Structure formats: C-alpha cells, structure tokens
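Crash report, auto-generated. Payload:
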Amino acid sequence: MVNFDYQTPTRLIFGRGVVAEKLASVMKNYGPRVLITYGGGSIKRSGLYDQVINILKDKEICELPGIEPNPKFNPSVLEGARICKEHNIDVILSVGGGSVLDCTKAIAGCACSDADPWDVVTMKVPTHKAIPIVDIITLAATGSEYDSGAVISRTKTNDKLAYFSKHVFPAVSFIDPTYTFTLPVKQTLAGVADCINHIMEQYFCGEHIEMNDAFMEGAIKSLMKNVRIVLREPDNYEARAEIFYATTLGCNGIYSLGNSESGWPMHSIEHALSGHYDITHGEGLAIVTPRWMRHILSDRTMERFVAFGTGVFGIDSSLPEREIAERAIQAIHNFYKEIGIPMTLREVGIDDSRIKEMAHHIAVNEGLENAWAPLYEDDIEAILRDCL
Ligand code: NZQ
Ligand code: ZN
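Recovered output after restart:
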C-alpha cells in the first residue's frame, strides 16, 4: 500500500429537493455579488434557472451563459474572468454539467491573478487564490463537483488540458439526482462511461489494495445495473441516485487511496480526440477502453485483467488467465454496445486523416511513457487505428 496525503474540503449536499432546502442559507455565507455560470439552455428548460434566480433575489447577479461542452478558454474563461474582475464578484454559482463547472474553476483561478490567463490554466503560473465556487451539478459524469480539476479546450491549438489547484475545489456542491431525469440518453450513457473509465484508470495500476478493488468493482457493477434501469425508466430516483453517487466520487482519488498511479492513459488519449474533434468525452472513452486494454495486455499486466474480469463480470476464475482477460475485454465492449454507445471513431465522425497528428500530440504532451503500462507514439497510433 502506498502512502497518501488526502483532503477534500468540499461539502456535498445530496438528495431530492436540496436546492430549495439549503441554497439560500449556503449563499448567505458569501458577499452580495454573485456570478451565475451556465450552459446552452438546459437549466432554463428544466426550470432550475428560475428557481435559482428566485432564491438569490436579494443578491447582485451577473451571468455568464453559453458555456459549451468541452468548455472553451476563448471566449468563456476569458469572459468570465473579465466579469469577475470588473464586478468584484464574491462567489461563483455554477449551474449545469461538468463543462460549466470546469469553466467556472478556470474562471475562479484566472480572476484572482494578474498573469496571462492561459499561463494560469496551463499552470505555468501557480494559482494562489480563487473566487469561492458553489455548484449545482446537473449531469452525473465527471466528478468535477468533488475534485480540484478542470479540463479546458483552446480551439486554436487543439489543446484540451487539465488545470488543477486545491483552491478550486468547490466549497459546496448540490447534487440532486432528479435533475438528471431530463438528460438526453446520449448524455446519461456518456456520463456512465466516463465514470466507469475513471474507475478503470484507478483500477489498472501497479500497487493496489483489496479494499479498493472491492470498492471499485462494486461501483462499476452498480453503474452497469442502474444505467440499464434508467434506460427503461428515466425518472427512477433510486437508480439515478446510485449513478450520481458513484460518479461524484469518481475523480477525487477516494476510490484508490493507497494504490499507485496509473498515469490515466485512456483520458490522455481521449482528450486529444475531443480536443481535435469536439466529441463527447464519455463516448470517446468508451471507444478507447477495449482497444487500450487489448494493447496493454501482457504477462506483466495480466493479474489486473483477471481480477477485473472475475470481480466485475463474474467470469469463471478456473479458466486460463488469458481467456479471462480476453473475455473481460469483450464484456466491456459488449456492455457499451448493448446500452447504445457508438463504439468506433467513424461513428462519431473521426476518420484516419489526423491519427498521426493526434498520436504525436499525445506522445509529446501527456508523458505516457511513464504510465503503469507505458505507451510510446507508435503504441498510441496503433490504439487509435484500432478504434477506427
Ligand atoms: O449546455 P446545456 O444546455 O446545459 O446542456 C448540456 C450539454 O449540452 C447537457 N445537460 C447537462 N445537464 C443536463 C443537460 N441536459 C438536460 N438535462 C440536464 N440535467 O448535457 C450536455 C453535456 O454537458 P457537459 O457539461 O459537457 O457534460 P459533462 O458533465 O459530461 O462534462 C464533460 C466535460 O468534463 C470534462 C470532459 O473532458 C468534458 O470537457 N471532464 C472533467 C473532469 C473533472 N473536472 O474532473 C474529469 C473528466 O474526466 C472529464 O475530462
Ligand atoms: Zn473523464
């Protein structure tokens, strides 16, 4: 078991009706000037926007609408930071999915710095301070509501980069599973695939402990079971709540305290796909997952495949190890196909024309030669070609 030093300062307020119950009292802890950030309109259609505006009627409100999936540095981060500086914002309230919250985190850091905002986001300049963030998260996927990371895209360079700072942990996250009743099926599925992948990135590593294996296998099984339920019954509260609980824990390390680092290779590969083609993150991950597994399967990595195959899919442990591993890879592929996720790059509009460029981009920027299962440019290119 490896040493760890762990702290998550975020207060989670989880359950049906929590916004009506507690948002007003939470917001009283901050000054009067609030920036509300949101996306392309889902919160207006669901009525959440009106509810929030009504709860905050005594505050001085600025708004930053229109934050896109795969949130963009220009204009959203730049515009948000400008508003915060100009209006001396006391707190930012993010209302939406992971993209809105990630953008909000970058805004919160950039607004407290005189440095070039891109240098802040790329962490060339350290973040010493950020505007406090409260969020209402409406999509079960990223775990951004419980972590200190944000993923920001800069269109002109095809960059999609992770920004981290302990100062951008949300202070308070409101998680009401009923908000996910309105999700399009595509986003429900992509969110589940994103979380399964977050767990796999932590499961497929060198040093690992039994308790974490059981925790992660249980979470994946719960996600697989409950996504099948919500496909039939989109407003099944218990199933939506199980999914949201698993996704909220996904990225803050709690699934794998005491495990060694894997290097998160599938995320590195997917971020290049969505950085170059603006695809949906969870779909990109689902496509990459079985191809990455097949590529890194070896005698050295075999033990993880056997544990995963028997623990998650109940594959007969008396079978030869190689067969268990092969069946596990096929099982995850079949599961994604069954629930309706596109499982080739061509289905999401990506052909082979930029594979070399993306493989080079990943090899140069992501340090995957140091991953638990090291990947060099040729490996990455082979995985991407296999995804076509
Ligand atoms: O923009 P609106 O109109 O709000 O619509 C959104 C958007 O079109 C819609 N949506 C959100 N909640 C809804 C809803 N529609 C109906 N009902 C609701 N309740 O869903 C669409 C996608 O939203 P988005 O926020 O982009 O999805 P998600 O939460 O999956 O976030 C994806 C982004 O997070 C990054 C990804 O790379 C991607 O950029 N990630 C962030 C991480 C983190 N901060 O820790 C970790 C992840 O690995 C991931 O990389
Ligand atoms: Zn992810």
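Post-recovery validation: The chain is about 50% helix and 10% strand.
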